TrEMBL record:
The keyword Membrane applies. Pfam families: AWPM-19 (PF05512). InterPro entries: AWPM-19. This is Uncharacterized protein. The chain crosses the membrane at residues 12-33, 53-74, 86-103. Keywords: Membrane, Transmembrane, Transmembrane helix. It comes from Rosa chinensis. PANTHER family: AWPM-19-LIKE FAMILY PROTEIN (PTHR33294), OS02G0731500 PROTEIN (PTHR33294:SF8).
Length: 104
């Protein structure tokens, strides 16, 4: 019993850090995609090949989906029921798959 409570107490800080990481990914991917669309990819630090555009789109969508997944995880933390666990777990697995796809 005590082990379950310890895991639950660590869930909130881990979800908060995960949300911040996803928001950083969304911000950086959005900024870089904006620079890439504006034609400013000739700089050495913004260079890339033809797949850069697709990687940025996948990273942007995976970051947004991951942030939504974290919010659902926070809702599950508050409710802590079997019904909310299934939704949070399935969304987390799909989010993880999208992030793996974005990282190539």
């Amino acid at each position: 019993m005590a082990l379950g409570r310890v895991g639950r107490s660590f869930m909130a800080p881990i979800l908060a850090v995960n949300l911040v990481v996803h928001l950083i990914v969304v911000g950086l991917a959005g900024w870089s995609l904006d620079k890439y669309i504006d034609g400013e990819q000739n700089h050495p630090h913004l260079g890339g090949n033809t797949s850069t555009n697709f990687m940025l789109i996948f990273a942007l969508s995976a970051g947004a989906f991951g942030a939504c997944s974290v919010i659902i995880g926070m809702m599950h933390l508050q409710a802590w029921q079997h019904e909310s666990h299934a939704a949070a777990a399935s969304l987390a697995i799909i989010s993880w798959a999208m992030i793996a796809l974005a990282f190539g």
